[in-house]
Amino acid sequence: MKNIYLLGSLNIDLTIRAPYMPESGETLKGSDFMMTAGGKGANQAYAAAALGGNVKMAGCVGKDAFGDLLINSLRRVDTSYVRRTDALTGAALITVIDGDNRILLHEGANSETGVLDAENLLSHAAADDIFMTQCETPIDGVIKALKLAKSRGLFTMFNPAPARSEARGAVMYADLITPNRKELKLLSGKDDLEEGIVELLRLGAGAVLVTLGEKGSLYVSARERIEVPCCNMGAVVDTTGAGDTYCGALAAELARGVKIADAMSFASRAAGITVTRRGAMVSIPTREEVL
Ligand code: RIB
User: Fold this and answer.
1) What pLDDT is stored for residue 261 in this prediction?
2) What region does 28 belong to: left with phi over 0, alpha with psi -120 to 50, or beta?
3) Catalytic site residue from 86, 175, 244, 262
């Protein structure tokens, strides 16, 4: 089995369910407050490990209680490359309305994550191992890290979330890029799904896998086109972390040598379970549950 190396963010998630988004000056009573481990990087690392992968993660947290909570939550992940810095741990204020989330981020220690972290992380990686990263740490480091991993022969997976146009410079170093619809539009500059995919392939991505929510997911490379339906596992309670679950599950399956179409079905089932539960990392299923 291949190892999975992940560079990414770690956040404390402060989540409240609300009936609607409060207006300026309004104080609104919410419910179901949760304080849980999150961050796109940490969620994907947790998912890949919970679903059977050998995962090593690099990133930064503060020397505060939230940093402790994050490292303790990632117990199946090798966090020896996660640095403790003098900045506060990154934080995400999440409002959940009718199952959908709105997230306000404070990047905190995540702002110190860079290419040196990737160099340390990859010092013992083998060609053919998997490298994955996202856009929640400084983009310059993300681009350099992808370039480094690709030059060493690793299979590079890039989840361009949250959406930011500067991530365009990273596309050429991605063997597999996994945008959602909004991220695809922003990165490609195209409104049309098919044109957006063609544009990312033209920019140099090895393959494009678009996650389409309830419409499933679509993979396109020079040789293959695969469509996988969404997997409805019950009522949608909270979509936070669904994309992260999908990416982590996909990496775990690819690390086992599973073919892309089967890896997509597995990832779709895993994400289908995540949305039936509240929270991000705490809602990610185990391999047994998905099977
Ligand atoms: O993708 C979900 C994640 O986005 C949350 O855990 C939050 O920390 C934000 O980074």
Assistant:
1) 98
2) beta
3) 244
